[in-house]
Design a protein that fits this description.
The protein is of the alpha/beta class and 238 residues long. It folds into two domains: 91 residues, NAD(P)-binding Rossmann-like Domain (Rossmann fold, 3-Layer(aba) Sandwich), CATH 3.40.50.720; 133 residues, Rossmann fold (3-Layer(aba) Sandwich). It is 29% helix and 17% strand. It contains nine helices and ten strands. The strands form two sheets. It has a five-stranded parallel sheet. A five-stranded parallel sheet has the order 8-7-6-9-10. Helix 5 crosses helix 7. Pfam families: 2-Hacid_dh_C.
Length: 238
């Protein structure tokens, strides 16, 4: 059987490919694949691995040998899941992918915004800070995180990892009850109520038809004027 890896280079340097290529398949490995190259490269393949390259219904219908699509990340929004299901093509992603790094990135964003770091960094470069008559600059607000309320929307593996970091900073963590979700834990707060109370909102839920446009203008209007809103990269579904 033939296996194809469409965009290995997008995983970054230093990733060992041998656990995949040791599998008894006839492998073709490409660093990058443009959208117009997909059809030619997956021809007759039973297994296709992709990180960011889109695999749509037309690709699946053109090649009946295709049996498995592996997404080399968490999000599966680059694959037409409905078309795959209809054709009996198995699609999986990498569960637990990048939990520590995503949580770290989320908190890096929280700290950057809470301290107005980009603004103060620019002020130090353009001379504004050094021109201050009082040795320091107080132009931009700084939020001390201790005692502040963090609302996590999507309390899965990623959300829980962010919660642990927040608790280390002394934050009060709230878990949102997502409308339409089957999760009914008593400790969860209604989304609208949580948005109104939160100083920081961190979004970690997958993109599905139930969560698409979950945060819209009406919900944003519920938030306090000083509140911070973050969306970490996690999307599933078309």
């Amino acid at each position: 059987m033939k296996g194809v890896i469409l965009d290995w280079a997008t995983l970054g340097p230093g990733v060992d490919i041998s656990p995949l290529t040791d599998i008894d398949l006839e492998w073709s490995v490409y660093d990058m694949t443009a959208s117009e190259e997909v059809t030619e490269r997956i021809q007759d393949a039973a297994v296709v691995l992709s990180n960011k390259v889109v695999i749509n219904r037309a690709h699946m219908e053109a090649f009946p040998a295709l049996r498995y699509i592996g997404v080399m990340a968490t999000g599966m929004n680059n694959v037409d899941l409905e078309a795959a299901s209809q054709r009996g093509i198995k699609v999986t992603n990498v569960t637990g992918y990048g939990t520590a790094s995503v949580a770290q990135h989320a908190f890096a964003l929280i700290l950057s915004l809470a301290t107005s770091q980009p603004r103060y960094a620019q002020a130090s470069r353009d001379g504004t800070w050094s021109a201050s008559p009082m040795f320091c600059l107080l132009d931009y607000p700084i939020m001390e995180l201790q005692g502040r309320k963090l609302l996590i929307v999507g309390y899965g593996e990623l959300g829980q990892a962010v919660a642990r970091l927040a608790e280390a900073f002394g934050m009060d963590v709230m878990m949102a009850a997502i409308p339409g979700s089957s999760t009914r834990a008593k400790e969860r707060i209604a989304l609208d109520e949580g948005l109104a109370q939160a100083d920081v909102v961190s979004l970690h839920c997958p993109l599905t038809e139930k969560t698409r446009h979950l945060i819209d203008s009406s919900r944003l209007s519920l938030m306090q004027s000083h509140a911070l809103f973050l969306k970490s990269r996690l999307t599933l579904g078309m």
